[in-house]
Design goal:
It is a single chain. With about 240 residues, the protein is an alpha/beta fold. About 35% of the residues lie in helices and about 25% in strands. The protein has a domain of about 120 residues: P-loop containing nucleotide triphosphate hydrolases (Rossmann fold). Strands 6-7-8-3-9-10 form a 6-stranded mixed β-sheet, sandwiched between helices. Strands 2-1-4-5 form a 4-stranded antiparallel β-sheet, with helices on one face. β9 and β10 form a beta hairpin. α6 runs parallel beside α7. The chain binds adenosine-5'-diphosphate (ADP) and magnesium ion (MG).
């Protein structure tokens, strides 16, 4: 449903992505993993149409979306949960969730969407009047995910949800991502936490220094000595 082919992105003269081809099929949970500085956020911003493509193309549900605006991309049903969450920290939880209803028609489903996200995150229902900036990092990540779901997207892009979270919260956030996926959502998960991402993904790409260096099922990637050795934090068997 989302397909990038041969994408090259640069900041001025400095290239950040080289010949990147990735795709997400409907209902898939795909991970793109790689170390800090690999180009993961650049790829997210490219898909969100915030960065121009120097080369390559992007198709979404069969339509060429290589040159459309970020607003149009959102209208197509791509929701981005940005790195660092970017909540409206002075606003309450529920006010943040309402800001998620930007997509045409999502407003009409507001009450239904709210009920769905509160079922997924009971803590957010309890805290719905709390100023979001006063919540823990993990709870703020939940608000960010819930806000994206309020737009009733076709695909969710989640950039580094584990960033800055305590290990217990990281596990919870990954469980929630898995649950949303089981509910039928197509998800592109972008992460530095390779192990946790491979635990939940159906397919994964490894990005390093702006290039895709591997793609496959998590079990296959784990069994490759050069991947295990370099990215999984333990020596290969
Ligand atoms: N706004 C920018 N201007 C110039 N260079 C950037 C900018 N954002 C990122 N970069 C560079 O692009 C590369 C990839 O960064 P980024 O996509 O943020 O990586 P990741 O998200 O994997 O940590 C890095 O070398 C980074 O310094
Ligand atoms: Mg990043």
């Amino acid at each position: 449903m989302l397909r990038l082919e041969g994408v090259e992105i640069a900041y001025g003269d400095a290239p950040a992505l080289f010949d990147v081809s990735v795709h997400v099929d409907r209902g898939e949970l795909v991970a793109i993993v790689g170390p800090n500085g690999a180009g993961k956020t650049t790829l997210v911003n490219a898909i969100a149409r915030l960065l121009p493509f120097r080369k390559g193309s992007m198709h979404f549900q069969g339509t060429d979306v290589t040159k459309i605006s970020p607003q149009a991309m959102g209208a197509h049903g791509i929701a981005v949960i940005p790195e660092g969450r970017r909540l409206f920290t002075q606003m309450t939880v529920e006010e943040n969730l309402d800001m998620g209803c930007y997509r045409r028609n999502s407003r009409a489903f507001r009450d239904q969407s709210l009920a769905e996200v509160y079922a997924l995150f009971p803590i957010l229902r309890e805290r719905r009047h709390q100023i979001s900036g006063t919540m823990s990092g993990g709870q703020q990540q939940m608000v960010a995910i819930a806000r994206a779901l309020m737009s009733r997207p076709e695909v969710l892009l989640i950039d580094e949800p584990s960033l800055g979270l305590a290990p217990i919260m990281v596990s919870q956030v990954f469980e929630i991502i898995q649950k949303i996926h089981r509910g039928g959502m197509s998800i592109l998960l972008i992460e530095q936490n390779v192990n946790k991402s491979l635990d939940v993904a159906e397919r994964a790409y490894v990005l390093d220094c702006g290039r895709l260096i591997a793609e496959g099922a998590p079990s296959e990637l784990r069994s490759r000595p050069e991947i295990a050795g370099a990215y999984l934090g333990h020596a290969s068997p």
